[in-house]
């Protein structure tokens, strides 16, 4: 009988986190490093990565890279054996209905949220397969489970992340690798500023309600990757208590 319930320690593990310059990725890098993992930080804003690496100290390292660039992402993994990879980099642009949509915005969301995740996954798999263990965590969203007005292409990109997660479970079945999709509702980060391009508009997304913090999401990721080896936390959906669906937010004002 398997009575193994002890958490899997993070000390000695080698993690890579994309989108580590802000929000959920930055909080996840802090959580993993704080629990003993050595962390490699990836995003485009190099100065921010340098600051975070200095804050984390120890053996934290970083590379400025764009996940839309397949070759650049492959290079990150050359000669490295990451056993914990968090494909978190992602963004949304705009809330226009489809008939008013901007095809450059569509391309940026699809190239980052879908192809960027694919580039990261493909580059991460050889070392994970060779080790016969490890964790690959994808940042999905409740937007990958429910659509909402103006969400269209962002919704499509996050539904694709969910499909990629499900495909990985089947394609890599028997490999020993654990796959997790983490799907949060509203989290207060730079996400809404990037999406709406205006700080007042971004603040109004969270007005009168208590959103999740990036640390809440990082805590869920840390939980998933520290379960005993025979346990795979597959899907984590985190809602703010004041959010019932992608369209229902209770603005209590507290
Ligand atoms: N905030 C929410 O309510 C929410 C809810 C559900 C899911 N999510 C998902 O959570 C993930 C993280 O978002 P967040 O809320 O933490 O937003 P954020 O604060 O804006 O952080 C996004 C991160 O992604 C990086 N990034 C964006 N495009 C990139 C690219 N082409 N190459 C490399 N890095 C790139 C950004 O870094 P650089 O700009 O420096 O490259 C940044 O570090 C995303 O996948 C998002 O879709 C967010």
Describe the structure.
The structure is a single chain. The chain is α/β, with parallel strands linked by helices. The protein is built from 8 helices and 7 strands; from the N terminus they run βαβαβαβαβαβαααβ. It has helices at residues 23-34, 46-56, 70-77, 103-131, 152-171, 191-196, 199-205, 214-225, and strands spanning 14-18, 38-43, 61-64, 84-87, 135-139, 178-184, 235-238. Strands 3-2-1-4-5-6-7 form a 7-stranded parallel beta sheet, with helices on both faces. Helix 1 (23-34) links the parallel strand 1 and strand 2 (38-43). The mean pLDDT is 97. The structure holds NADP nicotinamide-adenine-dinucleotide phosphate. NADP nicotinamide-adenine-dinucleotide phosphate (NAP) is lined by residues 18-25, 43-45, 66-68, 88-91, 112, 116, 139, 141, 184, 186-187, 189-191, 194, 214.
């Amino acid at each position: 009988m398997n009575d193994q319930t002890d958490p899997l320690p993070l000390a000695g593990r080698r993690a890579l986190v994309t989108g580590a310059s802000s929000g959920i990725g930055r909080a996840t890098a802090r959580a993993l490093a704080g629990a003993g993992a050595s962390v490699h930080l990836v995003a485009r804003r190099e100065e921010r990565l340098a600051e975070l690496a200095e804050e984390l100290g120890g053996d934290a390292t970083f590379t400025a890279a764009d996940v839309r660039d397949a070759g650049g992402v492959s290079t990150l993994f050359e000669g490295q054996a990451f056993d914990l990879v968090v494909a978190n980099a992602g963004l949304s642009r705009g809330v226009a209905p489809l008939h008013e949509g901007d095809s450059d915005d569509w391309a940026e969301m699809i190239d980052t949220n879908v192809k960027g995740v694919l580039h990261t996954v493909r580059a991460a798999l050889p070392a994970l397969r060779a080790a016969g263990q490890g964790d690959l965590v994808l940042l999905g969203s409740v937007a990958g489970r429910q659509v909402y007005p103006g969400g269209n292409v962002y919704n499509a990109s996050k539904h694709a992340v969910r499909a990629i997660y499900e495909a990985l479970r089947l394609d890599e079945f028997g490999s020993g690798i654990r796959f997790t999709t983490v799907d949060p509702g509203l989290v207060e980060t730079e996400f809404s500023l990037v999406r709406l391009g205006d700080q007042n508009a971004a603040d109004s997304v969270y007005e009168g309600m208590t959103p999740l913090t990036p640390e809440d999401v990082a805590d869920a990721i840390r939980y998933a990757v520290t379960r005993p080896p025979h346990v795979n936390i597959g899907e984590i959906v985190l809602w703010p208590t004041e959010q019932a669906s992608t369209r229902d937010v209770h603005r209590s004002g507290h």
